[in-house]
Design brief:
There is one protein chain. The chain has 84 residues and is α+β, with helices and mostly antiparallel strands. The protein is 25% helix and 30% strand. It starts with a strand and ends with a strand.
């Protein structure tokens, strides 16, 4: 199982400081031109979460806090849970 988090680009300095691997992607916005977002993929969640039920029970914000960083969750836009 994997999780892809999409985070607001305003938090790029924090993502860099934490040392996470990420991709910068163009996002659609009717208001802002050249709007960017950060995508962070966490692989092999089963190695990080002891009980798969916990993984399914956690909200997107809780999962972000657990796997990444509570401050990053303030800029969380979208979470995609990928089941292999």
């Amino acid at each position: 199982m994997n999780v892809k988090f999409t985070i607001d680009y305003d938090l790029i300095e924090l993502v860099d400081a934490i040392g996470l691997d990420y991709d910068i992607v163009d996002a659609k916005s009717d208001v802002i031109s050249n709007y960017k977002e950060i995508e962070i993929v966490v692989d092999n969640i089963e190695e990080l979460v002891e009980d798969e039920d916990d993984y399914n029970r956690l909200s997107d914000d809780e999962l972000c806090e657990f796997l990444l960083n509570p401050t990053l969750c303030e800029g969380l836009i979208y979470t995609q849970r990928i089941y292999d």
